[in-house]
Write a structure and sequence with these properties.
three-stranded mixed sheet; alpha/beta; 14 helices; about 375 residues; eight-stranded mixed sheet; 3 domains; about 40% helix
Length: about 375
Amino acid sequence: MVRITTPCSGVTERSFGCNRTVTMQTYNFVEEIVKKTITSGCLSLSVLLVGFLLVSCSHNAGNTNEAQQTVLINGAGSTFGYPIYSRWADDFHKAHPGVQINYQSVGSGAGIRQLLEGTVDFGASDAPMTAEQLGQSKIPVLHFPTVLGAVVPTYSIPGVTAELKFSPAALSGIFLGRIKKWNDPAIARANAGVKLPPNNIVVIHRSEGSGTTFIWADYLSKVSPEWKTKVGASTSVNWPVGLGGKGSEGVTALIQQTPNSIGYVELTYAIQNHILYGLVQNSSGVFVKASLDSVTAAAAATADSMPADFRVSITNPSGKDAYPIASFTWLLVPTQITGANKRAAIKSFLHWMLTDGQNDAEPLAYAKLPSAVTTKEDVAISQIH
């Protein structure tokens, strides 16, 4: 008897290309062909048939392996956007089981740095990359606004449960270290009827490079010439006063643990951690509480005139209903992505984010993107190749 062993013979049940049953059937089929062809002298035809079966089996195994491979996408950056990015990663994976998105909440500054170093597939930031940072990238980087959010003044004062009102002068004075007591007239004037203690104010701020810090400092730079001159707007600033906490989580924890403290966090963190946050006086002189409506109003004036690269600041906008410390937050995506599967997955995710993903925004205290913005972004996705 002539016996021929094909590459599929003896394959275990865990192999992707062939299973044991098919292998045995193929083996019997080949053996029978060889028996007949040796008898008839048609050995060349026998070899051709066997070769065809071997190539076919090997090709099918490769295709199945490729089809079952998971596409892994790594991103890092903004803590401001972490709650919704985490939700999106889960929801997109449920809809597309072959794609896994890992996102690390390390702060906008670290996210930009990792993107420039090429250790992640995308970065995330609450501050647009600067011209200098864009110049450092070997590959052009696109900015994709994801949602709108707010940064709010949060505080912990023993005996005070009221929602305090803060004027631009009060906030800049506190964070410059000029206003030192909670009962200072600059605070008390806007909060008639609230018994503010004569306690020293403890300022809490981010300790690392942060897009949330950029939003806060950007606002203070627009309302306070002194802040603009002495401190300025950046993801990392030289704080005149205060204690640093790492991440929004660290700032929130410090505020909760420190009596007479004040800091700034994203609206979603303030809501999730059940801490008080105040109203802020806008450019129309109205004290406005951060909400979905007031954040959307802050973006209204910008939506139709959005620059082509989507790098824009909307702090201290016009409009009596607009909350003054609001911002877009961005995903930072290279225009060139190695690997056809990964490239297709990222482009698919971006489109999903601008459509179905927007439905996750409001339950997490973010505002949806204006339709005028998402339409422009969908076109920009085509620049990724």
